[in-house]
Amino acid sequence: MRDSHYTIRTATTADLDGARAVMLDTVYRDFGTGYVPRWHGDIIDLGGAYVTPARHTLLVAVDGGDGEVVATGALDSRGPAHPPNPAHVAEKYPSGVTAQLRRVYVRPEHRRRGLARRLVDELLAFAAADGGYRAVYLHTDPAVTGAEPFWRSLAKIVHDEREDAGGGQGIVHFDVPMP
Hints:
The protein is an alpha+beta fold. The chain is 32% helix and 25% strand. β2 and β3 form a beta hairpin. The longest helix has 16 residues, at 115-130. The radius of gyration is 15 Å and the shape is globular. The mean pLDDT is 95. Pfam families: Acetyltransf_1. Residues 6-179 form the N-acetyltransferase domain. It is an enzyme of class 2 (transferase). This is GNAT family N-acetyltransferase.
């Protein structure tokens, strides 16, 4: 997929360092957590997490001006684990038949240009073409500026942990319609 400035494509080995930089910058800057191995281990091994497995994918948006990776989006066949996610969410989205959207991140200076939506459209097309997925799931941290409204525009909330006693992890869980 291409417009006058960006190309969306499946990541190549040459793209992995750029994709990893986008992701690590996001967890440090936007999430404020920094790298936490139990949450972000896939970022270190992008090839093993998304490139090598047949039913997984990693997409990148590349700036046509300088060839820099400026946005990422990934999909894998792992449903949300319990714990830390609520049991009913994990039960509704089992591994193997759930496509989980992950790491849809756009560098701040490239936001508001439709890149995240284009990445999601391509990820959903990948999930549909697989033939084995029956649901698409994702979760987001609503503290990240713009994340919750973006996902609300594309998906349906299935659980908002902020409504749990004690607020849970504060995560919002979404079901994304399959194309």
